[in-house]
Structure formats: C-alpha cells, structure tokens
Design goal:
The complex is a heterodimer of chains A (468) and B (276).
Chain A: H1 11-29, H2 37-45, H3 49-54, E1 57-64, H4 69-82, E2 87-89, H5 97-107, E3 116-121, H6 127-133, E4 136-141, H7 149-152, H8 155-166, E5 174-178, H9 182-185, E6 194-200, E7 226-233, E8 236-241, E9 253-261, E10 265-272, E11 275-281, H10 286-301, H11 306-314, E12 323-328, E13 331-336, H12 341-352, E14 358-363, E15 391-397, H13 401-409, E16 418-419, H14 423-433, E17 439-444, H15 446-458
Parallel strand pairs in A: 1-3, 1-4, 2-3, 4-5, 5-6, 6-9, 13-17, 14-15, 14-17, 15-16
Antiparallel strand pairs in A: 7-8, 9-10, 10-11, 12-13
Helix pairs in contact in A: 1-2, 1-5, 2-5, 4-10, 4-11, 6-8, 10-11
Chain B: H1 2-21, E1 30-36, H2 47-58, E2 63-69, E3 82-85, H3 90-113, E4 117-121, H4 123-128, E5 131-133, E6 140-141, E7 148-151, E8 157-165, E9 176-183, E10 186-189, E11 197-201, E12 211-212, E13 214-216, E14 219-222, H5 233-248, H6 259-274
Parallel strand pairs in B: 1-2, 1-3, 3-4, 4-14, 5-7
Antiparallel strand pairs in B: 5-6, 7-10, 8-9, 8-11, 11-12, 13-14
Helix pairs in contact in B: 2-5
Classes of the chains: A alpha/beta (468), B alpha/beta (276).
C-alpha cells in the first residue's frame, strides 16, 4: 500500500477537470485557438470550480489593471522561473473567470504533494469573483483607464467595485499599488491587506500637460480638482488634491535615472526597501517602466531576492504582440497592440521617439473583444503624429478602417490614409513599400492582432499564440 | 431691473450682429466655440465633435476659436456662437450639475435665448434638460433649455444605433443618422421639443417610444456617440449654419469632399445591422 494522501474526491469537480483537459486536447489537435471554451465548460459543470480548484494551489497572485496585465504577468512569471518557484499561468490572455478556471483545471494535480503558485492575469471586472474564490497572496493593480466602455462602463465604477472587493482581505494579502495613478493608489485605505506602492521618481519624462484622455483628474475622496506637478502618462504622475489635500503616496519601490532607448527598451535605477539595482530591459516605453516596477514589487511581496528579480526581468522577451519586433527579409515589423486611448497614445509616443521614417498599418476591428464602440479613436492624440515629418505612409484596415481613416483626416488632411479591405493584402502591400532596413509599424486591436498572428504564422514568422 | 438690463444688452447685441452681417467677404467670418467642461465631460471620444465643427469651418475659410470652459468659470452669454457639452461619468455629472447651478445657469440660458447653438451628447444632453434623477440620490438639476427629463434605470442601452432623421430637423441630405449609444438614463420628451429622429436600430431616448434626441430652437441633444458629427456631416453643417446665422444671417456653406465621411456613415449602418 502506498503512502499517498488520499483526498476525498469531489465528483463534480473531477468531472469538470477531466472534461476541461479533454476539450483542451481536442482543440489543440484540431488546430484551434479557442482559449475560453474549456474553462467555460468547467464553470458549467461545477460553478464553484474556482474556489475548489484554488485549494490545490499554493496561493494565487492576481495581476490586474487596464493596460499591462499580460506583460506584467509574464515578467513576474520569468522572475518566478528564475527563483525556481513552481507556478502556473493563464498565459493565453484568457483572463475572465472561465479563463482562470480553465488555467487552474488544466494544470491541477489532485494531490496535495506539489502545490504550485497560481499566477493569474485577471480582467478588471473579474477581480471580485477571483478574490471571493481564492485567497490571493498578492494583487497587483497597475492602472485604470477608459477602455471598452461598452463592456466595462465607467472607470469610476470599476474603481468602486475593486474597493469593495478588497474589504474582505486580511494582512496575509499584499496589495501592490501604483502610487502615480490616483484611481488605484488609495485602494488600500479601507482594506486590512498590507500595501506596497510603486511609482516613478524621474521628472525628465513629465508631459507638459494632461493628455485629453486622462480619466482621474478629480479627487476620488472629495471631488475637488487635482493639481498635477508631474504627468508621466495619461493621469499618472505626481498629484495632489487642492481641496482636501489627498496626495500621491510615496512609493516604496521606484525607478529613477530612466533612459528610454526608443523601441529597444529602457534602463533605470530601481530603488526598493531592500536596496537598489540597475535594470536594463528590452521592453520599450514609460508604460513598461511601470510594468517592470509592478513585477519587482510583486516579487518582493513573495520575498524573492533582488538578484533573482533583476535576472528574471532582464531575460524577459516582449509579451505576446504587446510590443514585438519581427525581422522580415531585411525589413523590420513592429507589432504594437492598441486597445484604448492611453495605450494608443503611448505607442505613438514611443514611435515618435525615434527619428526614422514611419510606415504605418493601423487595423481597427469592432468585435466584442475589441470593444464595439470605436468612439475612443477620437480621444487618441493623432495630431502628434503629424507634428513631425517622418510619417511616410499610413494604411488602415479592419472592420472599422473607415472610422480610423476619418479620424486621421480630421487630424491632418496631408496624410489621408489608404483603406485596405483585406487584411492579408494590407499586410503584403504595406511590407512591400517599406524600404530595406526600415520598419513597418503595425498597430492592431485585439482581434486584429489574432488574425495578424495567424497570417504571419502561415508565412512562417512566429508561432500561433497558443503555442507561445 | 436686472431683467431690463439684460434685455438692453441683448438689443445692443442685435445691432452688433447687423453690423457684422454686412461683411461680404466669406473669409472674414468668425466662429466662437465654447466647449463645456472638457475635463469632466468627455469620456466617449466626444471631442471629435469639436474637432469636426472646427475643421469643417476652417476648410471653408472661417476663422474658428475654441475655448474650453471649466468648473467655476463665468461665461459672457454673447461671446459664443456654439456650445458643445459632452458625456461624462456619474461623479462628474454631479460636480458639473452643481457648477451649472452656481456659476453658469443664467448666462447659458440667456445664450440659448439669443440664439446660440447648443449640442449636448449623452450626459451633456441630460443636463441641457430639466433634471437627471439618479436611482437613490437626489435629483441633479440641468439647464432646462431642452424640455426633457431623464431618470436612471437598470437597463443598459448599449450598441450601434441608426436613426431616421426628423424632417423638421432640416438636415436635408442625409436621411439617417448613425452613432453608438451607451446609457442607462431614460430621457422623456416634453411638449416644447421635437425628437431629432425615430430609431431604426437601437434603443434611443428611453427604449420605449422609439424617439431619439430632442431639439428646441437651436438647442440639440442626443445619445449618439461615435462621435456623431464626423460621420453625419450634413447634421454638422446644419449646426454650423445655425451658429453663423446669429451674427451673419443666412449663409450658404460651400460643399466639401465628403466621400470618406459618407463611407464611414455607410459602414456604421452596416455594422449596426450586423453587429449590434
């Protein structure tokens, strides 16, 4: 007789787990990429699946926020790997409840011997369900911006939903909060959870004024207008309420001496309560400074040492299509996911930081995963794009190509883009007209990125994302 | 007494208008746009409306100024030809309603009386009306320059929307208007307003009576994001003509190349039918 611990078998859960694993295999064999279906099935068979499955894991680490979830989760994953901590991750960007269940069900071993940490990229509105079902060791709140308002509704409502979800937590959970984002910095105030803050302490990157697409410019406590001494991106910066005095908490973990190397990445000095280190990483833009700081903070919450953290971060490749470079026949392809005004503004800022000629292909879809309302394109500061002379050619594609073209027309009549009906052709002609050695910047919405990845995979570039 | 004083200055303003209307050179026309609360009330790409009026005026050689009007600022009611008032979040709507009452209400009502054009979208539309009544909190008073009232509901009216334009609206060349609605407030029309149109696809004012939007004189309000003006160019030009009329009388606007605007309009109709 073996000495395995025998655990009472929950038939319903077992059925859910087995069918999930089975369905996953079928989908892979048939070459599909549907990542939510298995979790959906498990949820259907056992509605309490997440809570039950959570017991088979060594706690969870949730990563949320409008932008940077995937990148931050992957950075944390790389640190965990470096620290030799066994973990599972919903890597495929499937971050709704069914995605979390799917990831836990697929990887579970129904024995208590080798519990792994569950690293879960979590959709903003899934946070209450997730914190109800599993006790997180840490939750990262990166930022909150207007995004897919047809699905999420108002950003202030999301903030309130978060605040409420955190009430039940105790000091065993650490909240990792971005001190520069007024909407998340004060989430810990009514919760018993431990709080650590991260932020930027480098004045050289301050924008001259708040971009139009800034969401939290009034105080969440008293409604008074916030005063911004520094603006790093959107409404992120150093702020203070002129009326009630509520101000940015001082960050425990912060980046200073930041050097942005255009599309190639950045370097910075990262200061923490456990000492500081120099970081050089292949992820570009200010937003990736925040993603990196979030990852450092989460890792510190798990007591991982700085050497390991640095090593894990510096070995990280760009997350799936978030910003990614592909070499193509002597030409470069830069992929940058665009899904909301703040993210799009930052991609444009990144693009304009270099002085090479710009060839662009923008692909705007309006399917559910993209957000069906394309109004947001008018909150993006495309005018900036034409303030410099390097833009050579813009093509647009996708179900809402015309909307994109029209937005650009009202930014500048000098560069009315060409509308391409067919995505594959759009990609082909766009690549063709880029001279050797130059870069084609492809900026797709989410579902457009999926189609694009498929086309590129068929041409032999990159892998389809579910193998990633 | 104050009332009489106001009338006098309104008359003086009339004379002023007559002087300027004698200008024959199209190129010296001016348009002053007042953009109400761009910080608080512009979450759904509504600034595209301001950009569109501005550009379509500029392309016709009209000199445009856009002035952002913030919380606490006072307004000279004779200064602006057109006011734009976008949509915002609940918290913003509350702050803005209070500010309208304390700093702007009388001047904006006066501006409406002397013929300034107003366009309110979503939350802005609601505050052009008499009040917005939230589910639990107390009523937020509006400007009352549109005879409409809005009450909160639990229905989320979200999706692409197509509206058949009210013939009395006078935006002759386009039969349909397109946009994207996203509201839970239900707006009901009073006797002094006419609906801007009848819903073909979507919910409209309240999801019940098939009406969408409202207008009363030169005051217009509707639920159409998208934003509404870029892809409904004849409505934009109607607003532009009305805004110029106050100073310059009837003006025939030159035609612009609207191929792309029309294409976007068509795509929006298509998407509304297939992707609601």
């Amino acid at each position: 007789m073996k000495n395995d611990i025998i655990i009472p078998v929950d038939i319903r859960l077992l059925a859910a787990v087995i069918s999930t694993k089975f369905l996953k295999t079928i989908i892979r064999i048939s070459g599909g990429g549907a990542t939510a279906a298995p979790g959906l099935l498990a949820e259907y068979i056992d509605p309490k699946a997440l809570k039950k499955l959570g017991r088979y894991y060594d706690g969870a680490l949730l990563v949320t926020g409008t932008n940077g979830k995937t990148t931050t989760a992957r950075l944390i994953g790389n640190i965990l790997k470096e620290a030799k901590i066994a973990y599972i991750h919903n890597r495929e960007g499937s971050n709704l409840l069914r995605g979390l269940i799917g990831a836990l069900a697929e990887n579970v071993t129904l024995s208590n011997k080798t519990k792994k940490l569950a690293l879960l990229e979590t959709d903003e509105l899934t946070i209450p369900a997730a914190t109800n079902s599993i006790e997180p060791r840490a939750i990262v709140f990166n930022n909150l911006f207007r995004d897919q308002l047809d699905r999420y509704g108002e950003v202030d409502k999301i903030r309130k939903i978060w605040q409420k979800a955190l009430l039940q937590l105790d000091p065993a959970t650490t909240l990792v909060l971005n001190s520069d984002d007024h909407s998340v910095a004060h989430l810990g105030s009514s919760s018993k959870a431990r709080v650590i803050y991260f932020g930027i302490e480098d004045d050289t990157f301050s924008l001259k004024k708040l971009p139009h697409a800034s969401d939290f410019t009034n105080c969440i406590a008293c409604g008074g207008q916030l005063r911004f001494d520094r603006v790093y991106l959107s409404h992120l910066g150093k702020y203070k309420c002129a009326t009630c005095g509520l101000k940015r908490p001082k960050p425990d973990i912060y980046a200073e001496n930041i050097l942005l190397d255009e599309e190639n990445g950045f370097s910075a000095k990262v200061a923490t309560p456990k000492g500081s280190f120099d970081l050089k990483i292949g992820l570009p833009g200010i937003y990736n400074v925040y993603n990196s700081l979030a990852a450092v903070s989460a890792a510190l919450a798990l007591n991982i040492n700085l050497t390991t953290i640095k090593k894990g971060l510096e070995g990280s490749p760009a997350a799936f299509g978030r910003t990614e470079k592909i070499n193509l026949d002597g030409k470069k392809l830069f992929l940058g996911l665009v899904k909301n005004p703040s993210g799009f503004n930052e991609i444009l800022r990144l693009l304009l930081s270099g002085h090479n000629d710009k060839y662009l292909l923008i692909i705007i879809n309006d399917l559910i995963a993209d957000g069906r309302d394309v109004s947001w394109l008018w909150d993006v500061d495309f005018e900036e794009l034409f303030s410099k002379k390097e833009v050579r050619r813009i093509r647009v594609a996708g179900t809402r190509a015309a909307d994109m073209a029209l937005r650009l027309k009202y930014a500048s009549t000098k560069a009315v883009p060409r509308i391409e009906e067919n995505l594959e052709q759009a990609l082909e002609v766009s690549i063709e007209e880029v001279p050797k050695g130059e870069t084609l910047y492809v900026l797709p919405t989410y579902t457009a990125l999926l189609s694009l990845k498929k086309i590129l995979a068929e041409k032999g570039f990159g892998k389809p994302f579910w193998e990633d | 007494m104050a009332e009489i004083g106001n009338q006098r200055s309104a008359i003086r303003q009339q004379n002023h208008i007559n002087d300027e209307s004698q200008l024959s050179n199209f190129g010296s026309l001016k348009l002053n746009i007042g953009w109400l609360y761009p910080r608080q009330m512009s979450t759904y790409g509504d600034r595209g409306n301001v950009l569109t009026i501005w550009k379509r005026a500029k392309w016709r050689g009209i000199a445009v100024t856009v002035r952002e009007i913030d919380l606490k600022e006072r307004i000279d009611p004779t200064r602006f030809d057109l006011y734009f008032f976008g949509g915002g979040q609940d918290q913003s709507q509350k702050i803005v309603s209070e500010d309208l009452q304390s700093s702007k209400k009388e001047d904006l009502r006066k501006a409406a009386r002397i013929g300034s054009v107003f366009l309110g979208i979503c939350g802005g539309y609601q505050l052009l009306g008499k009040y917005y009544r939230p589910a639990t909190e107390k009523e937020l008073p509006g400007l009352g320059i549109l005879d409409v009232v809005t009450v909160a509901s639990n229905d989320r009216m979200i999706g692409n929307i197509v509206v058949e334009v009210n013939k009395k609206l006078d935006a002759a060349s386009e039969k349909l208007m397109v946009g994207f609605e996203n509201h839970s407030g239900k707006t009901f029309l009073g006797k002094k307003v006419l609906p801007m149109g009848r819903v073909v696809v979507g919910y409209g004012n309240n999801g019940q009576d098939r009406t969408e939007g409202a207008f009363q004189g030169n005051v217009f309000g509707c639920y159409l994001h998208g934003p509404v003006l870029p892809k409904n160019p004849s409505f934009t030009d109607l607003l532009l003509e009305k805004a110029l009329e106050r100073r310059y009388g009837k003006i025939e606007l030159s035609t612009l190349d609207d191929d792309l605007e029309k294409k976007t309009h068509e795509v929006a109709i298509e998407r509304a039918k297939n992707n609601r």
